[in-house]
């Protein structure tokens, strides 16, 4: 069946800005891919990420370079040989999943999970800032079940303690975004243990994380920037206890499912995370996250406006997507 592919850029303002150790964003610039065949259209969204050398322009160029093969009927498996892992392939891969569901009438969840999807408890992200500002931000969300706190400075002890004081009952994930060093690692791990932190995400730079092999990980450590593909995992088990699967890193739901399966085989815990994007980017991730140990799919909650139809969020819960949105 002949297909027609179209891609476009969209911008969603972020409410109040979003700060991590690498800087601050005020908008989410996304690329949306739409593939039409048989009178039906599937769509997927990705967020180009400069950390991986991506931009809106580079993602559009990657999609354009693969358009002829996609329109002539390349499968999702064949797509992995046509496009490299990353945001561009993720948008196309997710659009193909959505198109297949719309053409067949069979929802995506029934093909990837054993049971109908349920609402999941998602983390809510606290941006990096001075300890007092982070405590104030946390206090506004202290009733949430799970928080994800951005850190990554030379001395995060005061930030960790301030956040914990502001949310004494919440489970907390810390995300250092590669901002710690081997020299500060033991100190920060001890502070995290004292504060009852559940998980620490990517404390050291990818490729410079040997110290994690040698230190007692008294708080579980999760790989993010260090893991993209299922083939990465075997080499990480001596340094990490969990992995963060993001569709835009993996290059789509197809590879992400392999990551989930390989993590289970190796005994690694799984977080399903996201970039800051709209509900369209989160929708396939909600299905992937069924049964995950940690879920971080709050992207739309950080936006000043979302697309319609949107995912349903209630308190700490995110609900599976409607067929009108995706899948």
Task: Report on this structure.
GO terms for molecular function: metal ion binding; racemase and epimerase activity, acting on amino acids and derivatives. This protein has 327 residues and is of the alpha/beta class. It folds into two domains: 4-111, Enolase-like, domain 1, CATH 3.30.390.10; 112-318, Enolase-like C-terminal domain (TIM Barrel, Alpha-Beta Barrel), CATH 3.20.20. It contains eleven helices and 14 strands. Strands 5-6-7-8-9-10-11-12 form an eight-stranded parallel β-sheet. It has a three-stranded antiparallel β-sheet with strand order 1-2-3. Strands 4-14-13 form a three-stranded antiparallel β-sheet, with no helix packed on it. Helix 1 packs across helix 3 and helix 5 (131-139) runs parallel beside helix 6 (157-166). The two termini are 20 Å apart. The mean pLDDT is 96.
What global shape is seen?
globular
Strand sequence of the main sheet, in spatial order?
5-6-7-8-9-10-11-12
The total count of helices amounts to 11
Structural class: alpha/beta
Task: Tell me the distance between the termini.
Answer: 20 Å
Instruction: Assign the CATH class of the largest domain.
Output: Alpha Beta
* CATH topology category name of the largest domain: TIM Barrel
- Strand proportion, as a percent range, falls in 15-25%
Helix content bin: 25-40%
Give the C-alpha Rg: 19 Å
The named CATH superfamily of the largest domain: Enolase-like C-terminal domain
- Tell me which oligomeric state these chains represent: single chain
- How many distinct beta strands? 14
Largest sheet composition: 8 strands, parallel
Low-confidence stretches: none
Mean pLDDT: 96
| Topology order in helix (H) and strand (E) letters | EEEHHHHEEHEHEHEHEEHHEHEEE
CATH architecture classification of the largest domain: Alpha-Beta Barrel
- Count of all domains: 2
């Amino acid at each position: 069946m002949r297909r027609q592919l179209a891609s476009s850029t969209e911008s969603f303002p972020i409410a109040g800005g979003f700060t991590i150790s690498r800087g601050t964003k005020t908008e989410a610039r996304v690329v949306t891919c739409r593939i039409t065949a048989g009178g039906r259209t599937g769509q997927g969204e990705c967020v180009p990420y400069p950390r991986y050398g991506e931009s809106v322009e580079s993602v559009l160029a990657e999609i354009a370079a693969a358009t002829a093969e996609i329109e002539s009927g390349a499968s999702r498996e064949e797509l992995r040989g046509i496009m490299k892992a990353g945001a561009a392939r993720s948008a196309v891969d997710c659009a193909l999943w959505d198109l297949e569901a719309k053409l067949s009438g069979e929802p995506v969840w029934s093909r990837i999970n054993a049971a109908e999807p349920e609402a999941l408890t998602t983390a809510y992200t606290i941006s990096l800032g001075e300890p007092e500002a982070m405590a104030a931000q946390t206090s506004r969300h202290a009733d949430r079940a799970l928080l994800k706190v951005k850190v990554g400075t030379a001395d995060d002890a005061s930030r960790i303690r301030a956040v914990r004081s502001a949310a004494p009952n919440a489970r907390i994930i810390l995300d250092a975004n590669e901002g710690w060093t081997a020299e500060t690692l033991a100190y920060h791990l001890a502070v995290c243990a004292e504060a009852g932190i559940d998980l620490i995400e990517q404390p050291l730079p990818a490729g410079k994380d040997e110290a994690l092999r040698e230190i007692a990980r008294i708080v579980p450590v999760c790989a993010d920037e260090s893991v993209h593909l299922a083939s990465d995992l075997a080499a990480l088990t001596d340094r990490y206890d969990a992995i963060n699967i993001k569709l835009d890193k993996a290059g789509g739901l197809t590879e992400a499912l392999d990551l989930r399966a390989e993590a289970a085989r190796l005994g690694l815990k799984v977080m399903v995370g996201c970039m800051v994007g709209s509900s369209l980017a989160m929708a396939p991730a909600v299905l992937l996250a069924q049964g995950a140990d940690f879920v971080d799919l709050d992207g739309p909650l950080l936006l000043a406006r979302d697309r319609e139809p949107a995912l349903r969020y209630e308190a700490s819960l995110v609900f599976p997507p409607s067929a009108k949105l995706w899948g």
